[in-house]
Design goal:
By secondary structure, the protein is α+β, with helices and mostly antiparallel strands. 31% of the residues lie in helices and 20% in strands. A hairpin with a 2-residue loop joins β1 and β2. The radius of gyration is 20 Å and the shape is globular.
Length: 244
């Protein structure tokens, strides 16, 4: 069920924009089609308010970044209502997973939107699991979207040591900008490298992007770039995000 189908069903009841709608339409749809969700069921919900143009019910907010934050708050409120309804109607034997595909830039390093940066404000996204039967939530210390399926299998088998649920987990991650070669990144444990192709600039930094230093030694630079580009050449991992 995509936005076009939802528009045809709920046109006039919920506001729509470019390619999305007010996220509250999802709860309405679930309630109207509750009979379809008999255990076991899997529901994937993609919210749209937090994508450009950052739709918010508060029409007085015009600053893009403020509107983006308002859209996030409204989406979280909608998620809470969806979860409460599902638990009431379908019972507590439900596993909730909340995550995001990317963040957003608002002028950092001259970037806007989410196409052209591998810095944390675009690639470091939330990941939280809610277990209703214990009323507990869990957030991994580190992880990536690539390990998500491994975590599901490990969780179902009871072997979390094979996933980012393990305390020993360390990141090994290659990143590239979504639709250009403007930036590439390599994460090795607690160290992150970012290469600005447009400036031929290679930076070494902590995982939280503090203590940034330019790599000027040509031998070291060549070795790091070789690893960045060879890995991306053989593994199509564009815009892979790390999760927390």
């Amino acid at each position: 069920m995509d936005a076009n189908n939802l528009r045809s069903l709920y046109e006039g009841k919920f506001e729509s924009f470019s390619w999305g709608m007010d996220d509250e339409v999802i709860l309405e749809y679930l309630q109207d089609n509750s009979y379809q969700f008999t255990p076991p069921f899997f529901i994937f919900i993609g919210l749209s308010q937090t994508h450009h143009p950052y739709f918010s019910k508060n029409e007085t907010i015009h600053d893009p970044k403020m509107r983006y934050k308002a859209a996030i708050r409204e989406s979280i409120e909608t998620i809470d209502r969806i979860a409460q309804w599902l638990l009431k109607e379908k019972g507590e034997d439900i596993l909730f997973i909340l995550t995001s595909d990317h963040g957003e830039s608002f002028g950092e390093q001259g970037d806007w939107g989410h196409n052209y940066s591998v810095y944390n404000h675009q690639t470091d996204v939330p990941f939280q699991v809610y277990f209703p039967w214990t009323d507990q939530t869990w957030t991994p210390k580190l992880g990536t979207s690539l390990e998500f399926s491994n975590w599901i299998q490990a969780y179902l088998s009871g072997d979390n040591l094979q996933s980012f649920a393990s305390q020993e987990f360390e990141l090994t991650l290659q990143q590239s900008t979504w639709n250009s070669n403007r930036q590439r990144a390599l994460v090795l444990g607690k160290i992150k490298y970012i290469y600005h192709a447009d400036r031929d600039l290679l930076l070494r930094m902590n995982l939280d992007e503090t203590n940034q230093k330019q790599i000027t030694n040509q031998i070291e630079k060549r070795q790091i770039l070789q690893r960045i580009f060879e890995t991306n050449k053989h593994k199509n991992q564009e815009k892979v995000q790390n999760v927390r």
